[in-house]
Queue: 2 jobs
Job 1
Amino acid sequence: MAFDPAVFPRCDQTPVWEGLARHYESEGKDFDLRQAFARDARRFEDFSLDAPHVFCDLSKNLLGRDTRAMLTELAQACGLPAQRDALLGGETVNLTEQRQVMHWLLRYPAQQAAFTPPAFDARRAELAEVHATLEAMLAYAERIRADEGITDVVNIGIGGSDLGPQMAVAALQSFADPARRRMHFVSNVDGHELDAVLRGLRPERTLFLVASKTFTTIETMTNARSARDWFATQGGTDVARHFAALTTNIDAAREFGIETTFGFWDWVGGRYSLWSAIGLPIAIAVGTTRFRELLGGAHAMDAHFATAPLEANLPVQLALLDLWYRNFHGFGSRSIAPYHSSLKRLPAYLQQLEMESNGKRVDRQGQPVSFATSPVLWGEPGTNGQHAYFQMLHQGTDVTPVEFIAVREAAHRLPGHHEQLLANVLAQAQALMQGREDAGGHRHFTGNRPSTFLLLERLDPASLGALIALQEHRVFCSGALWGINSFDQWGVELGKVLARDLTPRLASGDVSGLDGSTAGLLKRLR
Ligand SMILES: O=P(O)(O)OC[C@H]1O[C@](O)(CO)[C@@H](O)[C@@H]1O
C-alpha cells in the first residue's frame, strides 16, 4: 500500500515543537535531578516503565512531568501511532527503495500471536513463507548440531549479515556448547581476519555460511571466494556439505557454487535481519527451542509497541527522550554500557542499527532538515569502560547520556562477582547523577549527568529478543518523529564506488584525475 509521508508533519512542523523550545529555555535546560528527586518521592515509580522482559528506569533523566507530557503530545502531533500502523500494516514505508519494512513479521508466530497488525489478512501468504523457511533453516541447524564431524562454523558476512548474529551468539554463549562447536565470524575484507581463522581450521570439519542479503557485497564475496579456494587447496571435497548461503539472491549463490541456500525477502533490512535466515549461526549455536524463544521475546516487544498507550510505550518514550536530548539539550552522543560481558558486541550492533538508520540529513521528501538527527553511539561493557573513558563521562566538558544495561541473575556460580558487578552499575549511575562537591576542583564532580537503566531478569533468548526489538522500534520512532527514512543507507554507496575505482589503481599506479592527497597516499601505499 502507498505510504504518503506528506500526511505526517515533521517534528519541527508541529506547534508543539515551538512549545518545547520555549519550555527548554524556561525550565528544561536547568533541570536538576537531585532537586527533582527531593521534590518527588514517587519519581522512581512514575518514571519507570515495565515492558516485556525489560524494566526501564528513566527517572535519572533530565525529564520532568511537563516535558514528558509535551513530548508525548509531539508524538501524537507527528502521527506516530499512524506511522507505526503503516509499518505494521505492510505499507511501503521505505520510499527510496520502494520497500515494505516487515522484520517484525519474521517473529510473528504461526499460532497464538499477541497482537494483530492492521490489514493482517494481506500478510498471510508472506507469513506462511516465513514459517516454511524458518522450519527448513531450523531443521538444518539441528542437522549441523547433531553432526559430530562439524566442529567449526564460519559465518562470512558484514554489516547486518554479521553484527546481529555475532552479537547474539556472544550474548547467548551460556546456552551453547563451545567444547562441541566453535563459532567464528569473518567480516572484514582485511585478509588478516580470514587468515587467522583459517589457520585453526580443517576443511572436513568446517561449515562456511556465506551471509549476504544481496550476495554482491565486495567484502563478503572476496572472503567467500578465498574460503572456497582454501577449502579446495586443503583437499576439501563436498562443497554442498561444507558451504551454505543465507541470501535473498539465491541465483547468485547457486552461480557461486553453493547448493544449500536459505532465503529471505527484500522487506527485511540488513540491520534488521537477525530474525531471518541470517540468524542461522544463532540457531546452530543455541538450537531450535532457544531460537524460537528469541523470536518469542521479540514478538512480545512488538505487541507492546503495537498496543501500549504512548505514555507507557517504552520504545516511544525512549525515542522521545532521545529527541529531547539531541534536539534541545544538544547532546551529540549516547554511551551504551552493558554490564554483562556477553553483551560485548551490543554497542557495535546498536551503532549500525541506529546510525545507519537515522544518520540522515534529508527528510522523506528529500528536503534538508534543520535539526540534528542520529547521535553517535559508543560504548564497552562495564566494568571495563569505568577504567577507560568513564573519567570523561563524569568530569569531561560534554554531557553524554549513558544507557546502562544490567542483568539481575548471573549465568555463572562464581561467588562475589555478580554482586560487585551490580554494585558498580548502580554506583556509576548514582555518581553521574549525584556528583560531589570539592572546592579544589580536581575532585569535583558536577553531577546531574543523565542515565537510563535497562534491567533484564536474566540474559536469555527471550530477553535478548525483547531488548533488540525494543531498540529497533525506538530507532523507528526517532526516525518517524524526525520525518526521515530510517530504512535506506545511501550514505554507504559513495565510498564503495570510489574503492572500486581505486582498487586497480593500486596495482597500476595510475593516479590521473585524483586529488593530491589521494594520489600521494596511493603512491606511498604501492
Ligand atoms: O548483506 P549484504 O547485502 O552483504 O550487505 C551487508 C551490509 O552492507 C550494507 O548494505 C551497507 O554497508 C548494510 O546495510 C548491510 O547490512
Job 2
Amino acid sequence: MRIAVIGTGYVGLSTGVCLAEIGHHVICIDTSEEKITLLRGGKSPIYEPGMEELLTKNMEAKRLQFTTSHREGLEKSEVIIVAVGTPQQDSGEADLTYLFQAIQDAAPYIEKGSIIVIKSTVPVGTNEKVKRLLEAFGQNKVSPFVVSNPEFLRQGSAVLDTLNPDRIVIGCENKEPAAVIEKMYAPLNAKVVKTDARSAEMIKYASNAFLATKISFINNIGNLCEAVGANVEDVSKGMGLDQRIGAAFLQSGIGYGGSCFPKDVSALLAAAKEYHVPFSMIEETMMINNRQKLLLVKKALNRFGDLKHKKIAVLGFAFKPETDDMREAPSITIIHSLLNEGASVIGYDPVATRNAKGIFGEKIAYATSVGEAIKESDAVFIVTEWKEIKQLVLSEVISQMKQPIVFDGRNSFSEEAVRDCEEIEYYPIGKPAIIIRKS
Ligand SMILES: NC(=O)C1=CN([C@@H]2O[C@H](COP(=O)(O)OP(=O)(O)OC[C@H]3O[C@@H](n4cnc5c(N)ncnc54)[C@H](O)[C@@H]3O)[C@@H](O)[C@H]2O)C=CC1
Ligand SMILES: O=C(O)[C@H]1O[C@H](OP(=O)(O)OP(=O)(O)OC[C@H]2O[C@@H](n3ccc(=O)[nH]c3=O)[C@H](O)[C@@H]2O)[C@H](O)[C@@H](O)[C@@H]1O
C-alpha cells in the first residue's frame, strides 16, 4: 500500500517506520526542514530504542522516504495518516491548530478515493470537522473518507509497541475505508475494534484518563502506606495479582508526566465541563498528580528544615526512562521548586540533557556522569528510573556524597542494597525510610 504520514514526531515517525517495516511504501511529511534533513541522513530526531536501525533498514529497502512537500508526499498515496501534535491550550482543551493546518496543507493534493486517517489524539467530533474542512478545501470537492485511528504507543518503547499493539481501533461509519485500514495493519495480527468515529475518539481519552487515574490512586495509597507504616510495593503486588485489577500501572512514584497523560486528562475534563457531565474524579486525579510531583521536595524540607545552599544532585530529567522527552516531566516541577527553596542543583540524564538545557538554561549545572553529579552533594534525588541509575551500587554512591542522603522517587533500590551501606538515610516512596548510622 502507498501511505503518507503527516508529522514525524514520536507517533508519526514510529508509525511511518513500522508501516514500512511490514512492507508498505511510506512517505513521511514534516514542515520542519531540520527534522527531514536529519531523517534523510538516516538519523532519528528523537531518542527511541530500535528506531534508527529500522529507519536505515527501510530507507535502504526503498520503502521509506521523507519530504517537506505536501504535494510530493501526497501524490498517489492511498492512505494519508495525520499525526501532528494536539497540545493543551490554557483552557485545558486540546489545541487543534496544527491538525487543521495540516489538513489545509494536504487538502489540495489529496486524490479522489484516498483515505484520511486521524491518528492524533483529538476531542470527540473532530473527525467530522476534518471531513467538513476537506470538503471545503479539497481540490476535487469529493467527500473524502475520514477514519479515526487513535494511537496507544508509549514513548521509550514506541517501535516495539507499534509493531505489537494490544489493539487497533478503527472508527468510521463507512465499512469500505475501515476495511482498507484493517488490511493495512493485517501483518501485525492485532485485535481490531471497529466502531464509529466518536467512540474511537473517546476510547483514546478514556484509556489515558483511566491509566492516569490508576497511577494517582496508587500514589495516594502509597502516601497512606507511609502514614500507616505499610509498604506500597507489596500492596501493589497483592492488588495486581487480582486479574480484575492487573499489575500494570500500579507503580507508586512522583506522578505521571509526559506529553499525553496531563494534556489528555485535562482535555477530557474540558469535554465533561462543556457537556455539563460531572466528572470530579478526573479533577482529583490531576490534583493528586500535582501534589505527588512535589513529594521529594517536601521530604527534603522535612529532613533539612530548609534547602538554602544545599547541593542537590538530580538523577534523571526525562519523564520516564528510554526517552529524551521532558514534556511535563516531574523533574521540571521538582527542579524549579528546589531552586525556589534556595538549593543549588546539578542534574544528570543519559539522553535528555540537551532538552534540559533548553528548559533550565544556566540556572542549574549539568553533569556528564552520575559520579560527577553526586560528588560532594548534600542529597541525591532519583527522578527517572534509568537502568543506569537503578544499577548503581548505592554504597559506592554514598561514599562520594557530602552527606549520605537519598530521596528515591522511583523506589529504584532493594532493601538489601540499602542495608549494604555502612551509613545512609534512604527515603523511598510509599514505604518506611531506612536510616543507618555509622556505629
Ligand atoms: N507522544 C506519544 O507518545 C503519543 C502521542 N499521541 C498523540 O499523537 C499526536 C502527535 O504526538 P507526537 O508525535 O508526540 O507529536 P510531536 O510534537 O512529537 O510531533 C508532531 C510533528 O508534526 C509536525 N507538524 C506540525 N504541523 C505540521 C503540518 N502542517 N504538516 C506536516 N507536519 C507538521 C511537527 O513539525 C512535528 O514534527 C498528538 O495528538 C498526541 O497526543 C498518541 C499516542 C502516543
Ligand atoms: O497517549 C499517549 O501519548 C500515550 O501515553 C502513555 O504513554 P507514555 O506517556 O509514553 O508513557 P507511560 O509509560 O504511560 O508513562 C507515563 C507516565 O506515567 C508514569 N507512571 C507509569 C506507570 C506507573 O505505574 N507509574 C507511573 O508513575 C511514568 O513514570 C510516566 O511519567 C500511555 O501509556 C500510552 O498508551 C499512550 O499512547
